[in-house]
Amino acid sequence: MPDKQLTERHWSKRMLLASVLILLVIPATIMLGVFVLNDRKYYFISLLIVLYTMIPFALVFEKRKPQARELIVIAVMASIAVAGRAAFFMLPQFKPVVAIVIIAGVSLGAEAGFLVGAVAGFVSNFFFGQGPWTPWQMFCFGIIGYLAGILFHKGALGRRRLTLCLFGGLATFVIYGGIINIGSLLMFTSHFSWEALLATYASGFWFDMVHAIATVVFLFFLSRPMLEKLDRIKIKYGLIRAQD
Amino acid sequence: MKDHFSTFHPIVNFGYFAAILIFSMVFMHPVFQCIALVSAVVYSIMLKGRGAVRFNLLYMVPLLLLTAAMNPAFNHEGVTILFYLSNGNPITLESILFGAAAACMFVTIIIWFSCYNAVMTSDKFIYIFGKIWPALSLIFSMALRFVPRYLTQIRIISGAQKCIGRDVTQGNIWRRARNGIAIVSIMTTWALENAIETADSMKSRGYGLPNRSSFSIFRFDSRDMIVSAAMLGCMSVVLIGAAMGENTIRFFPSVKMIELTPFSVVVYGSYLMLCMMPVIITMVEEIKWKRIESRS
């Protein structure tokens, strides 16, 4: 299957690029922070690292010259997520973004899951205001979509509503909440301490909880119809390709 | 007042904000921070008028105070102990000063971002990144268009559903939730079908074929050239100053910075020039316009 080989080659290229970034560029950035900037610019350094982690996805995606249909399905899923966030904006933290991103990851593959998440985070801040938090949100949404795709591909995550809800709730609370809180702590204090981190987690607990509940609720209601619709589109227009 | 900096080439706008945001994040020296904060506030007021004043007073001042207060509560480094908290932790002068500096930095960055949002509209962003990352930029621009479109479409679907008594405002709570899901579901089907049609249309018009040019209304002319040269000049002076330690400040264990020399004044001056550049450009353009007007 030529298709399969193609994705495997991309896969290894991404791994290569990611490992170069992780092994060389990220330690170099941390060194820069420690020695040149006197180890006080946590936010700046962490922002750079978050941006690095997204570069391999962007480069690999551009490299394989994606088809118009593929681009547009990703754009549609990201826009549905953003429109959903806009529709529920009066309820703080009650956002459907993670749920849509997980559905995209399961149905369209890990790479598409990452892109839907990152694009949704970026585009939604064109409506709600860009800020130093944008890269963190992009990264968190993206990585949840990526994980959903990988886990589904490996067979650990089925299409059953219960497992999806469980995964969604946990991912929102642990991954999104966990990373975003670190980001906001570094943004606010630019001085890192464990007590402060603990205090940030404690103060963010209910926000993350509401967000996790929102994800579970949206997945419970939306996962089946959305997955069915995506399947239908994939079969009807022949969008099926080797999942990476 | 109309902002004139945003009429410059997108690369000039983007380069300016990238440089200024990085500088604001990195330089903790009080003079640099004050310059950046004041310039950001002035520019945001110039861009958005009274809304910016309200935003700065209502959100930024409390945020500044809150952030400044957070640091001494968790950070007990420093040699000048002012007093002890009831749990035995010392409050030091250095940690208060550092908290104030960090708070100032945070607020400055937020205000710069609010200016960025006004100047760097999405078309400029897509223009810059369309060359490097064409596929991703296309996704961004489509998603930006789809969002308002979907919100309108939801309204249309919900209106149609209302006619047959199936809107989210009709029936008991269980019924309403089910109607809501149905509306979202209709919207999704419509969105996906519509998207495939768009994709086919793009393909039939030759999307992805080589040697195709793309539409752009931006031109890099001599005015952009002059401003970029001025910007680069100021930036290099600031960077030389940074390399010589003019911009750094040490907070712990005791506050220490480099002595004031004529050269540091030059560095401060060029940083002020850099931060105030959009404001200066706008004022110069306004004066020019007034003069032309009065002459005729």
UniProtKB/TrEMBL annotation, chain A:
Which Pfam families does UniProt cross-reference here? ECF-ribofla_trS
Q: Where are the transmembrane segments?
A: 15-35, 42-59, 71-91, 98-123, 135-152, 164-188, 200-222
Keyword Cell membrane applies: no
What are the protein's UniProt keywords?
Membrane, Transmembrane, Transmembrane helix
The cross-references to InterPro entries, in alphabetical order and at most eight, read:
ECF_substrate-spec-like (IPR009825)
**What protein does this entry describe?**
ECF transporter S component
Its taxonomic path starts at: Bacteria, Bacillati, Bacillota, Bacilli, Bacillales
UniProtKB/TrEMBL annotation, chain B:
Instruction: Work out whether the entry's keyword set contains Transmembrane helix.
Output: yes
- Keyword check for Ligase, yes or no: no
- Enumerate the subcellular locations listed in this protein's record, separating them with semicolons: Membrane
Membrane topology, from the record: Multi-pass membrane protein
What residue intervals traverse the membrane?
12-45, 57-74, 95-119, 225-245, 265-284
This protein is called Energy-coupling factor transporter transmembrane protein EcfT
Extract the CDD domains matched here: EcfT (cd16914)
Gene name as annotated: ecfT_2
